[in-house]
# Entry
Amino acid sequence: MEKYCDRVLIFYAGKIVEEGPAELVFTEPGHWYTKCLLEAMPKQKKRGRELFEIPGRVPSAAERTAILSGENPPCLFANRCPFARELCHEKSPARIDLGQKHFAACQLARPPKEIRKIDGPGEGRKEIRGGIQDE
# Structure
């Protein structure tokens, strides 16, 4: 895809969740929906294996309207996100500047080179450049 465009916008449930230079979005995605989409893409080296499936379903237009009309709407992807935290279900994510004109609307997105421990479920893991890896 990065061969055909310079910038990419990733939408989830009608909202932009990530945008940036195509090369960065596809090599260093900042939103877990983008990461899940990339994981679900067929790849030659995974030929014959079952494709990754994002659990759950996209909220309907009526559900989306109800969710977003609340006082503090949650992240629309939180119910499907494998790394959602309590905050994701309580507050809509701000647009995080990941540098190089790359943005993601995700509570877990972090600017480049920021490393922090993650509290709660998943302890013993650290977040690096928006990704999670075991320590």
Notes: The domain at 7-134 is CATH 3.40.50.300 (Rossmann fold). Confidence is low (pLDDT under 50) at residues 114-135. The radius of gyration is 15 Å. Strands lie at 7-12, 15-21, 95-99, 102-105, 115-117, 125-128, 131-134.
